[in-house]
Amino acid sequence: MTSHRAHAYRRVTKTLRDMGPAKLRPAEQATIRVAADALVFATDLSSEEARMALAAAVLLTDELIDAERWTPSRAHQLLDDIWACGPGRAFGLPIAA
């Protein structure tokens, strides 16, 4: 794991801590945590687990935006942080937009 990935993981966990149960239900928190965990431990992006966890996080953030519980910029920042937990940057892949 690189320091970049470790910092991204810390940003995700800080978001979870800051938002807490007032802004995120337990199942939503778990979805985010699973995605960050799957990506931080992935060695490449061929991991089915990492891809499925990231897809679940994207779906969740879309739902948070649609329900007007989160702003699009806040949701996209979280997705960028989750993506940065993974090996994508090491392979020259852009961060999610």
Shape: globular
Structural class: mainly alpha
How many domains, as an integer?
A: 1
Number of helices in the DSSP assignment = 4
**pLDDT averaged over residues:** 88
Residues in β-strands, percent: under 5%
Low-confidence stretches: none
Task: Please give the largest β-sheet.
Answer: none
Q: How many beta-strand segments?
A: 0
Report the helical percentage. over 70%
- For the CA atoms, what is the radius of gyration? 12 Å
**What string gives the helices and strands in order?**
HHHH
Euclidean distance between termini CA atoms: 23 Å
3D structure, described in words:
It contains four helices and no strands. With 97 residues, the chain is mainly α. It has one domain. The model has no long low-confidence stretch (mean pLDDT 88).
Summarize it:
The chain is mainly α and 97 residues long. 71% of the residues lie in helices and 0% in strands.
Kindly list the characteristics that best describe this protein.
single chain; 97 residues; mainly alpha; 4 helices; 71% helix; 0% strand; globular
